[in-house]
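hiii, so i know i said id send this last week but things got crazy w the move. better late than never?? heres the sequnce for the chain we talked about at the cafe, plus the structure i predicted for it. fair warning i was half asleep when i ran it
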Amino acid sequence: MICNLKFEKPQFFIRKYLKFVLNIWMFTKINACLYRKTKPHIAHLKQNNIMQKLQLLVLCLFSTFLAFPKGIEEKKSEVKTETKTEAKVETKTEGEEDKKGSFTFSGYIDSYYIGNFNKPASRSNLGAYYARAFDQKAGQISLGLVQTKMQYSNEKSDVVVDLAFGPNADLGNYGNVLGALGSNTNTALAIKQAYFNWKATSKLTFTAGQFGTHIGYEVIDAPVNFNYSLSNLFNNGPFYHIGLKGTYAFSDKVSLMLGLVNNVDNLNDNNRKKGLISQLFINPAKGWNVYLNFINSNEANADDNGNTPDAHYRVFDLVTTLQATDKFLIGANAAFGSQKGSYQGSAALTESTPWGGAAGYLSYAASDLFSIGARYEYFDNTSGARALLNRLGNGTSVNSLTLTGNFTLADGHLLIKPEFRMDSYKKLTGTGESGRQQFEDSKGGFTKNSQSTLGLAFIYKF
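okay and structure toks below
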C-alpha cells in the first residue's frame, strides 16, 4: 500500500483530504441535533459548546488546506521573480564594469653595484666614449631607476602614464631635459611614456602620445630584460617617440603598425619634417615571434629661415624570439642603419654613412627560482656615424660578452642578478697610441682596449 501511494497523483490526496474534512463537519452537525432531542438542557449546552469547538477546528483545517497550495505557488513565483531580478542586476553590473574599465598601478625600483677589473682612476665604465648606457659608475652602490606606471583600460580604450625617476631615468629621457620653462622647472623629464590607445575596431587600434620605441630587442625597463646591462644596439638606437601610430591585426599571427613621429628622443621637434615608423609582426609557428622594424626621419636642425636641410636617419631592425622548450629561450637582434647630413646639431655627414650590429641571446630556466643566460654582441661603428667612438674621436667596433644569473625571490617580486661583462675594442696601433686606447687604468691613463666588470643588481617589481 505504501509503495502504491508513492505513485499517486497530487489530486488523489486532495480529494481524500476534502472528504475527510466534510465527514467530520457532517458528524458534528448530526450529533448536535441528536443531543438537542435526547439530553437535558445543561448537557445540551455543554455538548453544543464542544460541537462549536469541533466545527471551528474543521474550518481551521479547511482554511489551512486552501491557503497551503497558494502559499507554495506564491513562494515559487517570488523565487522566480527574485532570480530574474538578480540575473538582471548581475548582467547590468557586468556591463557596467566593462564600461567602467579597470585601473592598475605597477612599477619597480632597481639598484646595483659594479666592480671594474681595470680599476679606473675615475671609477667610470664609459671608457673613451659611451661604452655603457646606464651602469656608468664602478665601485659604488648606485640607484638605477624608479618607475611608477598607471594604466586605465576599458573595452574601447587604454591610457598609460609611465613616470620614471633617478639617474637612469634622466639618461633615458635626455631629450626632455629642457622643458617649456627651462631645465630648472622641468617636469617633462619624469615622463617615460604617456599615451592612449583607441580601439576603433576589434582589429584596428590607434595610439597617440609619447611611447617607447619599437626598435630593438631590449627595453629600458630592468625587470623585462634578462641581462641587467644594456647592449650597444640599445644604446645607439632610439629610446622613445612622440607621435601617432595605428596597428592593424590581420589575425593573431600577423599585424602591421604604421606611424608618424617627431624627431628621435626629443620633447620638442627640431624641424617640420615627420618621421615614418613601422613594424610587421609575424608568428610563423607556436613559440616563434618575428618583428621587422623600420624608422626613417630627418634629424637635421632647421636653418635660420625655418628650412630643413636634406638629411636622413634610417634603421632596418630585425628581432626574433624562439621558445625552443619550456625552459630554453633563444633570441636575436640585427640592425642596419645609415645617416646623412646633420643629426640634431652634430657635424653633417656629406654622404650616407652606414652602421649596424647583431646580438644573440640564450637563457635557460633551471628552476622557478634560478635561470642563467648569455648575450653576445658585435657592434660596428667604424664609419663614425653613431656615438660609439675611440679615444681619437673616430669610429670603432666592439665585441661584447655578457653572462647573467637571475634569482627570482619573494613570490616573483624580487630579482637578484649577478652579471659578468667583457667589452673588447679594436686596439689602436702606431707610435704614441699606447696611451690612447679605449679604457682607463688605475693611474688614469687610457692603456686598455678591453674592460671586464662584475656586478650585482637588485630589482623589486610590483
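btw Residues 41-100 form the longest helix (60 residues). thought thatd interest u
miss u guys!!
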